[in-house]
Amino acid sequence: MERTAPVARGPAPFGPPASEPGLPVLRELADLLAAAAPTAGPEPVGGGHALRYAACAYWALRGLPTDPAHVAASPGAESLLLALLAATGGDVLLSRPCAAWYVPQTRILDRHAYHVPIPAECGGVPDPFALLETVRRVRREGGDPRVLLLSVADDPTGTVAPPELMHEVCEAALEARLLIVSDETYRDAVHDADGPVLLSPAEMLPDDVVVLSDLGASLVPPAWPAGIARFPHTSRGAELHAATLDALSGLRAVLAGPVAATVTHALGEPGAVTARRAAANRLQAVLASALHRTVTANGVLARPPLAGSHLYADLAPLRSALSERGITDSVELEDHLTRRVGAPVPGGHRFGDGPDGLRVRFSTAPLLGSTDEERTATLTAPAPLELPHVEEALRLFGSALAELNGGPR
Q1: Considering only CA atoms, which of 337, 336, 319 is closest in space to residue 328?
Q2: Are 399 and 405 spatial neighbours (Cβ–Cβ below 8 Å)?
Q3: Nearest Cα to 310, choosing from 269, 272, 351?
Q4: What is the C-alpha to C-alpha distance for residues 317 and 407, in angstroms, rounded to an integer?
Q5: How many Å apart are CA 237 and CA 409, to the nearest integer?
Q6: What pLDDT shows up at residue 197?
Q7: Cβ distance 64 to 213 under 8 Å?
Q8: For the whole prediction, is pTM greater than 0.90?
């Protein structure tokens, strides 16, 4: 059983999608935002009528019928999670590793977060047997675990939890009397539309799951923070919804009117938005696979990425060579690789792993290009891996890892 990892040195800009540059803003959304710019007032706390109805339509297409009275929206997933945890009380169970932005919300509320190891096949969810054992230990020691926060399509690992495993995890959470918070930020960022089946815990346990999503991963530009949450259609869900709105009100976490109008439009999934999302997913599949090949070709372990723009790598096989260079933990590894490749390569200590491990999260962001022109070219190229800036970024990753694998300094 482990609580949160030690606080990392320096800033940790490795959270929701807004932490990395995305693709150029879709013209249709930019025009909508500009047209709504004269709107002076913010949305009501939790989102206005039109936005909440649009969120219901969005979830209905994903097999989750929803009532507008059980929807909340805010400027980003962080404020939603903070408000929700304030409403639930108690301690939080997390997978290890987990998204870097989860733990700070528990620290703000002075709650304990307990990390549970992930199974071999994927990240985002804890091993179900380890989850039950952790809950038992925490309760024996006087803790108060109430929430399991998991991710069906995961950052940092870029994996998708198989349905049979999700069933086992949900059954374990139900046995342990835990509210499940399902972070589905990357559910629409799965690389292959005909690939792994994504099962939301809310499909299995509709009365015990709150669904959370940061829309910057696939619907709106990441720099326009917007998040939505779906609460159970029960009396408990209504109480949680009301308490979450109270917390959002206290935080003044309300969407700006122009952003809300744009989000409402995007949630309707018009053709331009869905076409951009499909193109982005195809591109990320190509880039993430190429990055994975580059990483594993240099003796590094990593699960094949299936969603999003990240993969989680374990450099433990290079421990001896790293030690010779004075790199003995993930903090030093992060510092070295970030300097070497000229882009953030956050260490595993950012994601709940102990700093004595040698794990990092790699991102495809440097492969997209450094300007909007390059990113547009990457998105539209029939063979993006042949573009000079993509080739150079992959070469830089490869040479940095080859050096760490015993190559010349």
Answers
A1: 319
A2: no
A3: 351
A4: 15
A5: 57
A6: 86
A7: no
A8: yes
